[in-house]
Amino acid sequence: MDHVGQTVRVSGWVFRKRDHGSLLFFDLRDHYGLTQVVVQPDRSFFEECQRIRSESVIIVTGRVVARSEETINETLPTGRIEVVAETLTIESMADPLPFQVNIDDDGPEETRLKYRFLDLRREHLHKNIMLRSQVIASLRRRMMAQGFTEFQTPILTSSSPEGARDYLVPSRVHPGRFYALPQAPQQFKQLLMVSGFDRYFQIAPCFRDEDARADRSPGEFYQLDMEMSFVTQDDVFAVVEDVIHGVFTEFSNWTIDSTPFVRIPYATAMVKYGTDKPDLRIPIEMQDVSDLFRASKFNAFRGMVEKGGVVRAIPVKGIADKPRSFFDKLVEYAQSLGSKGLAYLVWEGGAIKGPIAKFLSEEELKALAARGGMTDGDVMFFVSDMVHTVNKICGDLRTKLGRDLDRIAKGVYRFCWIVDFPMFEFDEETRTVGFSHNPFSMPQGGMKALCEKDPLEILAYQYDIVCNGVELSSGAIRNHSPEIMYKAFEIAGYPASEVDKRFGGMINAFKLGAPPHGGIAPGVDRMVMLLSGESNIREVIAFPMNQKAQDLMMNAPNTVTEKQLRELHIKLNLPKEKNSEVRSQESATI
To answer: Helix, strand, coil: what percent of the chain each, to 5?
Structure first.
């Protein structure tokens, strides 16, 4: 209202147009919001304005007037004023749109990605990208306040034999050799610690040739990469908790767990939640009840335990009154996950019912009730199989129950650390011991543990931070000792010569004086996804690829010319159907 009576110039895109015959109204949109423009019929440009299509760009000069009481729009910051046009210039007349920007209908994703510049004009996407920028700025401020210095690490580097597939870049001046885009600045940031820098961070671009998921974008992503010297695991946790809690508090009015965040050992997480990415908003915790079935007359469960499998119970409060169809559908869902079935017991009216109740003794039923804290109205579900299968099935079932029963707490961010990951695991296919999570982590107990303990009992200083069932990052206290590293790789089947060949740069640096150090790299995309309430990570990335790692707007990846291939000393060896497709594209280009 401060501008009423002033002559102003406003510019932007035509968001909506309403033709009332005697008056023409435009909702003009720019980066900052909407302003209503009124064009009166006595203006020389009135008829031309009637032909303006949505999303055309115009510049208007006019007088600001107060709206009448009945036309005030309190939902807009500018809803009490409008601009009466005195001059109007059409800077760019828009063609008919492939989809509408001024409605909430998303439309086909492929079309949205092809016209992403148009999609980004929509209010919620525009806000998401601005939120992303603000979150990154906040992260930078908070890291510098913690004494960290921002460094840039190389984008063209060497291929890593570990992790996901690399994106490779052929070298023109070194025929037959390739750079790789970094999956993460892991080795470089550790080398910065060896170089004597104390606290490093970077909003780092990372590149991995892996399939898309709802919470993972194919191709590239960004992370808050950090590393610290002379620290323990607790020191890393304290920094991360301060930064992340501050950012989530700054950009959300939801309830956020206070610091320090709860710490859950990996083994406990797998039993209680069936996953190392637990959604703590769901008030359902599972129990291992294998011991109660070891001598049971229920042969199916006893037999599985005898074979080395487990029995996991999922106690759920207050659902005994659900119809039979609810349980039947849950059984079908468990079977779709690979379960042989889904047994359950129902505590109702002082009795214990259910398909397996008749196979269990009174003592066993009492023990199960005590183990799960069961009272009248509760139900306990059971899954029995080998441990990895059970974890996968039970983790999915717990999430489904939380969702279907509407028991996922709303308006809260629940954080946790998953700690004490196993250093090694047994590969059933190759019958060998290998690394389970991160080969460069420091084993708990150091060289003594590697020499004296069963490898499958050794834990590592590895940790994940999880929010609402989304893994934000993995991290570790690094193994900075060449001797311990050689021994760890030896247990995993790698001779010292192979370690030198694959990781010579880092090993050689460690031999010349390396401080103890550790770090982590929370995903920026995932943090913004959580803060914006989006379920798909592409909604918080300005120019994302589709699920096939294609940029439909820029037509990437694309073919290149024979001249470019000759310069790189590359010949294509494509499958037949791809070869014909490429040749037709090359012909069209020529």
So the answer is: 35, 25, 40
